[in-house]
Amino acid sequence: MTDAQGSVAQGERHDYDPSCHEARRISIRFNRQTQIIETIDLYFKRAYERTQYQKWSSLGQPFRTGVDANGNLIEYYRPSGISLHYNGPEASAPVDFFSHYDPGALAAQGAARAAGAERVEAERRPYLGAMLRQQPEPGIRVVAVEPNSPAAGAGIQAGDVILEFERTGFCQTNIDPNVFVSLERAQPAGKNVRLLVSRLGAKVEFQVPLAAADDETRALERGRWSNRHYEEKKKRLERK
């Protein structure tokens, strides 16, 4: 260790002897990247109920709960930075061990997991890759097709009118493209979906493998872009 002037000072080393203490095991999780001790886990020789830990550490109600890989309950308490790890899925089970944890590290892990979940969700979100608009006739009109998209690969063209998605028909006039998007999103990415299309008066059936969408394409398919954005995007598509 160092003193206030930054020079090396004499420190003390303490080795844990289970025979002299009530804890049978102490486990420390150290993050090499951040150089932070994230948790210190203490396993007692006998199993205690939650009420005993609440008494020792003046714990209130947990602000968060979770489960470990074996389905055992975990309760997190703040501001003390203590978590109780149960030997079962309910709080009625005895506590297997308790941890002192870094609340900041826990919050960062939660934010990272949330961001990862959002990315996974976005990656799995299916799309057709066509710009859609409602029309005064039955069906939903395709006004542009994204290059290298599922729609382009299947042969969908600008000017086509979608009459059916799988077995759902679009028989009404002025159908909101959101109706189509809702049906599309209910499918898993990668699935082949059936589209019945009207092209120059003839009905043509397509099998389209849905893929993942970026935010811009999803916005275009919903028909929520202004005319300026719509025209700019259409021109870019036509130039490709």
Question: What can you see in these coordinates?
Answer:
This protein has helices at about 50-55, 105-125, 150-155, 175-185, 215-220, 225-240, and strands at about 25-30, 35-45, 65, 75, 80-85, 95-100, 125, 130-135, 140-145, 160-165, 170, 190-200, 200-210, 210. The chain has about 240 residues and is of the alpha+beta class. The chain folds into 2 domains: about 20-125, no CATH class; about 125-240, PDZ domain (Pdz3 Domain, Roll). Strand 1 and strand 2 form a beta hairpin. The longest helix is centred in the middle third of the chain and has 22 residues, at about 105-125. It is rod-shaped, with a radius of gyration of 30 Å.
Short summary:
It is built from 6 helices and 14 strands.
Mind telling me the CATH superfamily name of the largest domain?
PDZ domain
Rg from alpha-carbon coordinates: 30 Å
Number of structurally distinct domains:
2
Number of strands: 14
Terminal residue distance = 64 Å
Note the overall shape: rod-shaped
Strand order of the largest sheet: 1-2-6-5-4-3
Look up the CATH topology of the largest domain. Answer: Pdz3 Domain
CATH classification class of the largest domain: Mainly Beta
